[in-house]
Amino acid sequence: MNEDYVARALGDLEGTVRGMSEQWRRQDESANAGRRGVYERLDALTQQVMRMSANFEGVAQDVAELKNDIETEVMPTIDAVKMAAAKQAGALSAGKIFWSFMVGVAGAVGFAIHEVLQYLKK
User: Fold this and answer.
1) 20 to 30 A from 68, CA-CA: which of 31, 32, 36, 87?
2) Residues 18-22: contacts with CB under 8 Å, at least 24 apart
3) What is the pTM of this model?
């Protein structure tokens, strides 16, 4: 009976070890499949990032060219328009000053004529 008990215990132990080994093998296969999936997704992500980097370099080059074009072609036009607006504002101010002066001179001439006529009347 003691030998039967030991044999049964040994068989149970062997079954338990086989079960644990089988479970460990399945978990290892599952982990390998999971890691493989992660690596595949990382590879896809790496390639996508590389494409985005290449696109970004192209966009950066385009922006640099546009900036250069703006500085060489557009800014002179904007500066000319600003200069013309400043000249127009200056001419308008000079015109106001000129006409104010003319009105003042006309008023002074009118006053002088009035005073001369008043003097001559007496």
Assistant:
1) 87
2) none
3) 0.44
